[in-house]
Amino acid sequence: MTNIKNIFNNFKRYQFLMTQLISRDFKVKYKRSVLGVLWSLLYPILMMSVMALVFSQMFRFKVEGINYLVYLMTGIIMFNYFSEASNNAMTSVVGNFGLLNKVYIPKYIFPLAKCIFVGINFILSLIPWLLIIILTQFGLGTYPASINIYYLILIYIFLCLFIFTVGIGLFLSCVSVFLRDVFYIYGIILTIWQYFTPVFYSIEILPAKLQVLFQFNPLYQFITAARTIVLEGKCPSLVSLIICGGMSLIMLVIGIMTFKKNQDKFIYYI
């Protein structure tokens, strides 16, 4: 209870710093950009358009009975959030060594701020995603996506994705202080992870044994739960929702424990 109280007190105490870090990231990302934040709306649409053309027309990927555009865009925005946020969080501690050397700051603020910053972009990307879903009701794609009350559960699923990403971010930001090779290794891991996550293809095209292996992929669980709501108009099973929550909390605990155990040594390696 004392640790939880300290965390909340630190949030209140360093709220201004957190806001400044997030604001700085926005200014850096969109510096000298004509469209600025609008890229957060345009990027998922442009990415979806390119991937839809490549995979549906050139490689003939499709998922029977559902709208492939929405299927694809759901996977893209969720995986892209995880990829960008975890990558940014990984470099956050090393990248802010100047601040850490001058004043005391709770070090976990840096990876957390990165996850929140990318999370704001993720929320903005939901606008074109919802627009695509609405347009499917008017003939965009072969099948219309579903609009239903279960969309409220998406808040829980996205929160699980955020918690899982924070856990990964804390873990990576800690490991990268001691082993800078992680910066390069993680890029390879993300590429492999993307292909082992059914972003643009259906898991049903895989052998049964491989499908079972995919159940252990947290991103598969998050994306599939969201697709069940949006594409099938159904509520994900209680087991699926528990798995999503359990995986995210386990990763968060691992990240916090690893970070807390090693954070006092950062100053000697940065």
Which key terms come to mind for this protein?
single chain, about 270 residues
Task: Give the topology string: H per helix, E per strand.
Answer: HHHHHHHHHHHHH
The overall average pLDDT, rounded, is 85
* Range of helix content: over 70%
Query: Total number of helical segments?
Result: 13
- End-to-end distance, in Å? 31 Å
Number of strands: 0
Largest sheet: none
Overall body shape:
globular
Uncertain segments: none
Classification by helices and strands: mainly alpha
Count of individual domains? 1
SSE topology sketch:
Layout: H1 2-13, H2 15-29, H3 39-58, H4 68-90, H5 92-95, H6 97-102, H7 109-135, H8 151-178, H9 182-195, H10 208-214, H11 218-232, H12 238-262, H13 266-269
Helix pairs in contact: 2-7, 3-4, 3-7, 4-7, 4-8, 4-9, 4-11, 7-8, 8-11, 8-12, 11-12
Provide an overview of this structure.
The longest helix is centred in the middle third of the chain and has 28 residues, at 151-178. This protein has helices spanning 2-13, 15-29, 39-58, 68-90, 92-95, 97-102, 109-135, 151-178, 182-195, 208-214, 218-232, 238-262, 266-269. It is globular and about 60 Å long. It has one domain. The chain contains 13 helices and no strands. The mean pLDDT is 85. It has 270 residues and is mostly helical.
Can I get a quick summary?
The chain has 270 residues and is an all-alpha fold.
